[in-house]
Amino acid sequence: MNYVVGNLTDPVFRPPSEWNALLIAVTNGCTRKCTFCAMYRTKKFSVRKDIEEIKQDIKIAANFYGNQVRKVFFEDGNAFVVKPEILIDLTKYCYKILPNLKKVSAYAHAKDIVSKSDEDLKRLAESGFTMVYVGIESGDDEVLEACHKGTNQDEITLAAQKCHKAGIAWSGIFLLGLAGNNPEKSKKHAIESAKLINRMAPPTPIKWYISPLTLRVTPGTELWTQKSKGEFQPCSSTQILEELYTMIEYTSDDLQNCIFNTNHASNYLNLKGSLAKDKKEFLKRIELAIKNPNVRRPDYLRGL
Length: 304
Ligand code: SF4
Description:
Elements: E1 3-4, E2 22-25, E3 27-28, E4 46-47, H1 51-65, E5 71-75, H2 84-97, E6 103-108, H3 110-114, H4 118-127, E7 129-137, H5 141-146, H6 153-166, E8 169-176, H7 183-200, E9 208-214, H8 222-228, H9 237-249, E10 258-261, E11 272-275, H10 279-291
Parallel strand pairs: 1-2, 2-5, 5-6, 6-7, 7-8, 8-9, 9-10
Antiparallel strand pairs: 3-4, 10-11
Helix pairs in contact: 1-2, 2-4, 4-6, 6-7, 7-9, 9-10
Iron/sulfur cluster binds next to loops.
């Protein structure tokens, strides 16, 4: 259950691991319109300009939930787009009036990380801003361009390295199936994603997080229209698992402290462990699921 206050407008999204966070609206909607994403279609993007009003929301939450709040998640789709001094101000305010607060996080687009200086990111981390959740989707620049992600492998690598350097934890989300069912394109999507994972590895031993999700083509999106016209054919569940296998297979055996998690409800198989430590075990389990459809999560139980 989330703690909610203020003028959040439906629909509201947050990462699964923020299920118990206080959700505070800093922006409304998302800065982008990726072709596969239906999350914020009903919202026109805006930034809340009145910082005192946001603080008032946080104060109301502190009066209401007080000691229970351990996490704050800045909404909406890309709260990281706002100026660093605003994020720093709001983060400091959260810690000031929420006595048990341990974590402040937000969704972030790679571009909005790269546009902030190393110094700004460091100050943000020092203020207590803890983690960014970045929808990477793919390491393949062609896939990123086709889905209008507005970034590329080099920029995402830079964003990750800047976060590692500043001390902001990195949680990267990939999207299996985004290249469609063409075997060559699907394989390239997986290999380039593995390459990006390898390039994002922190130079020092700190924890970082990678979570692949699986595409579901949703009504109201450009991808839905492409599918209806026969321009996009989704992968079968076997192809999705093969993609996951290739992605893991091509990751470096030298990766450390990379928490790898496919527990999201959209996936056919739950894996949780550490790359590269659990790589062989992951591959064994995926191989079993490729051979045996009975061990896969059935489609009717898959969620977004
Ligand atoms: S995938 Fe992320 S960046 Fe793209 S529209 Fe959806 S929320 Fe925004």
